[in-house]
Amino acid sequence: MTRLKINGVDEEVAAATVAQLLAARGIDPTARFLAVAVNGAVVRRAEWQQSPLSAGDAVEIVRPLQGG
Amino acid sequence: MSNDPFIVAGTTLSSRLFVGSARYPSQQVMLDAMAASGPCMVTMSIRRISLEGYAESLVDLLGDRYKILPNTAGCVTSRDAILTAELAREALGTNWIKLELIGDRDLLYPDVEQLVHAADELVRKGFIVLPYCNDDPVSCQKLADVGCAAVMPLGSLIGSGRGIANPGAIELICSRSPVPVVLDAGIGTASDAAQAMELGCDAVMVDTAIAKSHDPVRMAAAMKSAVEAGRLARLAGRIPKRTFAEPSSPQLGLVGT
Q1: What is the pTM of this model?
Q2: In total, how many domains does chain B have?
Q3: Which of A13, A60, B61, B232 has the highest count of CB atoms within 10 angstroms of its CB?
Q4: Across the interface, do A66 and B55 touch by the CB < 8 Å criterion?
């Protein structure tokens, strides 16, 4: 288990990569318009399989929503 | 309008009206309103996915029909705004960003100091930056100087519907800006949009005035007409204002003289 801050909330997740984290959270990694950042840096979609997560990492998982 | 193109960063946009995608009573009303307003771009925010409700498919719906302009709404630090812009670029595959940096949560007034800094950084990172900014010619000039593709001065406070609080300032900005001017925020009804265009703005951005009107589809059509009317009037050139009356009918041949 890895202790992460996911979208501002501290959680223990069985995930060692971004792709594993998305799967653990039930997020379809092929869904369009998703974006992920780890510790303030965007992780490109092509890197989700390899990009490692470590204890204490802050992860942002976002999508476009309505806006003005 | 093929003989009067609206060009931002070398791209010819399809109309002079930007619309938002928020605050509509339903998704269908939003889509119908957008069909009626014919926007050149539709703005969206970037948010953590846990906040998603009915809007989960909104971007799937809009992304295929309209050019999406992501915003950094709600950001109060340039660091958060820059990361939001980078996430938007990854999510939407666009390097266009409507840069918002808020300095006061009640007024939603721009924080110019951070805005110029974030704009500078984003331009260096290859973004096409359209900043929501003060109705102040100096702020607008600084934003143009760091390479913003357009400036988006506020008419009045976001969502206030108070129209253009300082028409003189907007007119000054338009007369001096080296980049297109898009009036953003404060539009309450169609005449406000027409006035913005008459003052010399190149385009208008509207969200709440359409979405929260009694009949958003009708108001969307009104905004489209108002932007076109205001633009035509601007190009035509208004008559000077006079102190006294000037008769329209001939003064010779009056009956009884």
Answers
A1: 0.92
A2: 1
A3: A60
A4: yes
